[in-house]
Design brief:
Helix content is 34%, strand content 23%. It contains 8 helices and 14 strands. The strands form 3 sheets. Strands 1, 4, 5, 6, 7, 8, 9 and 14 form an 8-stranded mixed β-sheet that branches. Helix 2 packs across helix 3. Bound molecules: (3R)-3-hydroxy-3-methyl-5-(phosphonooxy)pentanoic acid. (3R)-3-hydroxy-3-methyl-5-(phosphonooxy)pentanoic acid (PMV) binds next to loops.
Length: 361
Amino acid sequence: MTEKDFELPEYTFDKEEGSVAYKSPSNIALIKYWGKKKNQVPANPSISFTLDACATTTKITYKKLKGAATDFQFELLFEGTPKPDFKPKIKTFLKRSEAYLPFLKAYHFKIETSNSFPHSSGIASSASGMSAIALCLMAVEKDLYPQMNEDYLVKKASFLARLGSGSACRSIEGDLVQWGRHAGVTGSSDLFGIKYPYKVHKVFRNYHDTILLVDKGEKQVSSTVGHDLMHGHPFAEKRFAQAHENLDRLRPVLEQGNLKEFIKIVESEALTLHGMMMTSHPYFILMKPNTLEIINRIWEFRSAAKSNLCFTLDAGANVHVLYPENEKEVVHQFIKNELVVFCQNQQYICDRIGFGAKRLY
Ligand code: PMV
């Protein structure tokens, strides 16, 4: 599919008003997306677990304007309160989407959004937030173009979410989503995420992710700046090639449920992401001392308890602890006994693999 496939034939804006709502989850990458080309095209393919508990709920109420406006007409409420500082990001997203959603300047939109996780938790809400808005706008388009089928709606929602925040395109469906063209994965695309099309061992169907909130402050480096630092990065090409290799390595691991190999790939990906940030110009250390304390405790516990828990990181100090269902009790105990002391205000979020966004109405 190409960008052109996301432009529908001309249709009329017959509906005067309506409202739609979606709940859309966050996701955690196993193979990381870091670096992008023009138009939000990823420099390398990535794959993620869709999450369940960490989600954004968004409602869009739309009302037809008297005449087409010259600019987008929208208001934004975050947890019931107007949020002017979120508006520029939404405006950029609407601008990028305009070529694919012809009705955007014909309506006024009231966007009401809230997160299931505490704000300022250091958890990026862009994946769940942007995917929820993209889905709502697709629901509006379906109101105007009812013959649209569900498959198209889902693909185009992922395509649009990507224009808001790259990783958001992996938050529409579950439970494993791949984004970015990769020769080894049939149907993969740079333009949208797809459900991972190969066999996945049942051990991964109910995997857990406990997110340890090490640093709840603003991100030190925005992901936009981080992606940009991969331009001209001395190790960029090798890293992009490695992501392809890791995807190939992951395929039999996912199929066979080989947790030992899973751990090696996932932890190495997390540390490589941080390695890229440490070796760029300017350079950044996004981990905090407590991030390292946690990683060391995880390694000690894994070896002593013959456990299969492992960690991954996003572009910040928080630690995602991944483990299979049958280890849930021992790992919870370990987290409470040994890791919680390294969390800011002892806070952590128990999440697990999820199955994608849900339409609420
Ligand atoms: O979607 P963005 O532009 O915020 O980038 C997210 C990048 C990482 O979270 C660090 C990795 C990933 O693949 O999700």
